[in-house]
Amino acid sequence: MQDAVPTQLSEQESIPTHPEEMKASFNLRVGKSISLQGSARITPAGVVTTGLMISAIVLAFGYLARSMPHRRP
Q1: Domain of life, per the record (predicted)?
Q2: Domain boundary assignment for the chain
């Protein structure tokens, strides 16, 4: 009978990755005591979705800005 507890995988094997995902990371050091590290990953589908979301927000703000009354000095 097999064990009910799965064997532990390394961190790299446990996280499934998309074959086309893009990765970025940065290290920021400010002065002697402040250090920031960050990383991000996104797939091409995420890039397209982000573009659609931003264009919808810009379109909504454009509609609101156009509908406001204009002030003339």
Answers
A1: Bacteria
A2: 21-67
What single letter denotes the amino acid at residue 2? Q
The conformation of residue 5, written as its DSSP 8-state character, comes to S
Q: Looking up tokens 């589908």, which residue turns up?
A: 45
* Gap between the Cα atoms of 43 and 28, Å rounded: 24
Backbone angles phi, psi at 26, to 5 degrees: -145, 155
Per-residue pLDDT of the chain (73 residues; tens, 9 = 90+): 455 555 555 555 556 666 788 889 999 999 889 999 999 988 889 999 999 999 999 999 999 999 888 776 6
Instruction: Determine the Cα–Cα distance for residues 54 and 66; give it in Å rounded to an integer.
Output: 18
How many whole angstroms separate alpha carbon 41 and alpha carbon 27?
Answer: 16
Is 38:25 a contact under the CB 8 Å cutoff?
yes
